[in-house]
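User: Can you help me understand a structure? I only have the sequence.
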Amino acid sequence: MRIALALILAAPLLVSAAPSYDARVAAVLARTPLIDGHNDWAETLADKAGDARWTMDLNRLDPKEYNTDIARLRAGHVGGQFWSVYVDAGMPGPEQVKATLEQIGLMKEIFRRYPSVFAPAVTAADVRRIHASGRIASMLGVEGGGQIDGSFAVLRAYRALGASYLTLTHSKTIAWADSATDDPRHGGLTKFGEAVVRELNRLGMLVDLSHVNEDTMIDAIRVSKAPVIFSHSSARGLDDSPRNVSDKVLKLLAANGGVIMVNYAPGYVSEARRRWDADRNAEKGRYYSPPYGGLYIGQPDRAKAALAQWEREHPRPVVTLAQVADHIEYIVKVAGIDHVGLGGDFDGVDGNLPEGLNGVDTYPALLAELMRRGWSDDMIAKLAGGNVLRVMEGAERVAASMADVAPATATISMLDGPSPTTK
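Assistant: Let's start by predicting it. Here is the structure, written out as tokens:
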């Protein structure tokens, strides 16, 4: 009786001794760097701050304007970040190259200005060393194959400047690869596109398949000797956006050893939201489609009022942190725990993010949600950064095995022959 009473009295102490979710998250992220696959801070700084971006104080920025600043990166326990150096896919090739170099220059200047916060990284060992020093390991991701302007020399120059991945397309189909959000023209990768994948393998750069269509995904996984990544994509089984990844490709990704880093953009998280966005765009065009179309053409105020009335009658579906967690768990179910990561797309969606995930300080809240669902600390560590580090190491091993392979020198016309003007 006395023993039973003692156990009952001790029970509250035993419960209170268990670490909180926040404490568990902090402990995991002290050991394993949290690595995000895609952040568009450079683009947003250029768009919103102009020339001030080179000198402005980045410690604390207006959360209504930016998802990212140094204080929130620290609060979010960010240990590694692939910083996107995105440029408009509609620009002519040489202008894309120039704009890419400007974006790389901006990020390098940020690293230089804040050496106690950021440190450039290329290898997995770099990431671990920098994380252990209390800084954010900073990699660069070139977000679109058009940014190499059909030149392997340009690709190698980006690598020399520290670029860690190339996204094979952005929003437009290019001369050698089909995009997820444009008309396909090649059935995936052309011969030149396959050569790009092989050159990325030789350089130790990651092949990023976010933004490409399914045929391009399949071709790239087939050709690549190294694990591939999706730097910011989600599961098509929950949201049928072409920017997401089907079960078929998730299974191929698992066999390849790669990783998909889950995107937070609401239209890629919620099928209801994706359909609402499409309906809203259709209504907008119905009211105002200059120069000739629309019910209220030439009457912008009336068109704006009509759209506002439609929005009141059709409230925008709410997207939440829990739905992002659903995508993570879905990917684990299909591809396995070793093939999922985080790619929030912060500062790349005009501040339009799920409830509870409105800035880079919110990673712990997402990890805590998964812990509440029963995730172990080891599972959290794999999601947060362990899987990405493994993929980086895999790409490094492949590059080492190709040390004697000559650099690629062909042109698009040499491999694919004359082709129609690219879009």
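Now, to help you interpret it: The beta strands are 34-39, 78-85, 118-120, 136-142, 163-167, 206-208, 229-230, 259-262, 340-342. The first strand starts at residue 34 and ends at 39. Let me know which part you'd like to focus on.
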